[in-house]
Amino acid sequence: MSPREVFALRDYLGPNPKGRTISDARRVVSLTDILEHTCLSDRLSELSGRSVLMAVSDQLISGLVMTEIDGVARRMLLCPPDLNADHLQSLMQDADIDAVITDQPERWTASDIKLIVPAGAPKRAASAAKTERATEWLMLTSGTSGVPKIVGHTLEGLTGAIVADSPARNGAAAKAATWATFYDIRRYGGLQIFLRAIVGGGSMVLSSSGEALADHIGRLQARGVTHISGTPSHWRKLLMSGATASFTPRYVRLSGEIADQAVLDGLSAAFPAASIGHAYASTEAGVGFAVNDGREGFPAEIIGNNCDGVEMKVEDGSLRIRSKRTAYAYVGRKAAKLMDDEGFVDTGDMVELRGDRYYFVGRRGGIINIGGLKVHPEEIEAVINRQAEVRMSRAKSRRSPITGGIVVADVVLADNVDIGRSDEIRARILTDCRASLAPHKVPAVIKFVASLDITAAGKLARHDA
Amino acid sequence: MSVRLRIIAAMRQVAEEQKVTLPPLDDALSLHESGFDSLGFAILVARLEDDLGVDPFTLSEDAAFPLTVGDFIKAYENVPA
Predict the structure, then answer these.
(1) What is the DSSP string of A307-356?
(2) Enclosing domain of residue B31
(3) Do the beta carbons of residue A254 and residue A271 sit within 8 Å?
(4) Which residue in chain B is spatially nearest to A443 when comparing CA positions?
(5) Range in A52-66, A132-146, A266-280 with the lowest mean pLDDT
(6) pLDDT at residue A166, as a whole number
(7) CATH number of the domain where residue B28 is located
(8) CATH number of this structure's domain A367-448
(9) Share of chain A above pLDDT 90, in %
(10) Measured between beta carbons, which residues in chain A are less than 8 angstroms from residue B39?
């Protein structure tokens, strides 16, 4: 017997409450009797104690397999669908992978891995699965270049914020939520939402790649989604689409990028009946905190105090987090140290204190150099996005024969704005930038573009950052 | 509009944004006396590159930065089309 009871996802799935489902654009699967089913053709016992690569392309089956192998496998490595195949071999070595679960077994016939378990739609299982151990959850960082790092979590850490937010703890018997997210659930931001649906007794509506936004929103409304999460870029795209009118969620959550005042105000206007919150979380640092007062940034008093088991400090301008919700380590042969000697994870997110609030100013690695001065593009974008006609923007550096570099900005206007007004809007953006920013941060050139690229992780693409 | 007129218009635009009061822009005026700082010139050169499609100061490695308004305009006029 282990000294303390080991929990697994199956403990949150059972015959009650009734009517729980997980769905994508093609299927609706009942979660109420999911424990009597298997996606692995009853081969779960072969995976006991194994280090498993989840190479399941189908997001819905992936989610069901997570609930099936959690508590049985030694570890599971989750791969987002856009993972560069060239990195897979090295990641598998780093994670000591000795089994693969896949919905494309034909791709693995020549592999060194001997245990390949096919995954498919759930079928009635011969016997019920039992929890044997606390499975390690391995996730990949979402950095845009090079081999991603493997980050190790436990289910307890991953669900720390969910348990803290749960209705039971708040003394209210809230109706179980139907969650949705624009993220893929094999990324930290998406996994959090999937786990909220499972642990909180709710349902889950998944995104489907290639689905048109208007169809996606129609599906969210038809399936009764009450709680939904995405990056500010996801939300700006939705606000631009004009598809919000038919959608009435109760809770709208932003995470993964800086939520500026413009996107928060845009969402309040589009969803007047919803509460809007932005959460701070990262694959390494876990869920830090959520801000629900409708304002960008976060109250300064949460720094230096222990809030729900999360301690934060600011050192060299960046936010550092210590809590049981952070990852426990980077995993791999040459894994770097995740925490400092006191157990704080450096998030690399730079913050600035203004009055009684901290504001996110950008990523440490995203700084652009303008004539020898450091500039966070996000800080400039937040000012540009304040204009009502602007939907989103991207600031970047452009080489200059005079100063080495200057700031230029690409701006996407809201869909109802007459392009004939662009000169006037440009002048207003520049006036506001000059009033709010140091001279070298004011864009030298503003270009209006039809769209800006969003990465597979839902973040504004910054190729040159 | 000729290259010369477009450059003069761009200079006036940048000067207005940078709150610089331009002296009369004749060819002999030293750029140093125009009131632009290096950031002002960097903005001007970037905008002209977008407008005219060339940046003569990056194109040629040995191009010294011009000293007068006349030289500055010539640098653009002399770029082979």
Answers:
(1) ETTEEEEEETTEEEEEETTS-SEEESTTPPP-B-TTS-EEEEEEEEEETT
(2) 3-77
(3) no
(4) B43
(5) A132-146
(6) 61
(7) 1.10.1200.10
(8) 3.30.300.30
(9) 78
(10) 371, 403, 406, 439-440
CATH of A9-354, one of 3.40.50.12780, 2.60.40.2150, 3.40.50.300, 3.40.630.30: 3.40.50.12780
| Buried-exposed string B67-78: b where 16+ CB fall within 10 A, e elsewhere | ebbbebbbbbee
ipTM above 0.85, yes or no: yes
Close Cβ partners of A322 (under 8 Å, ≥ 6 residues apart): A310, A311, A312, A339, A342, A343, A344, A345
Cβ-based neighbour number of residue A369 at 10 Å:
11
- pLDDT tens, residue by residue, A198-238: 999 999 999 998 899 999 999 999 999 999 999 999 999 89
Are the beta carbons of A439 and B39 separated by less than 8 Å? Answer: yes
Is B45–A434 a contact, with Cβ atoms under 8 angstroms apart? no
The residue with greater pLDDT, A129 or B80, is: A129
Structure tokens at A55: 């190479």
Mean pLDDT of A33-38: 96
Peptide bond into A17 cis (omega under 30): yes
**Pairwise CB contact (< 8 Å): A430 & B65:** no
Tokens of A228: 């939904």
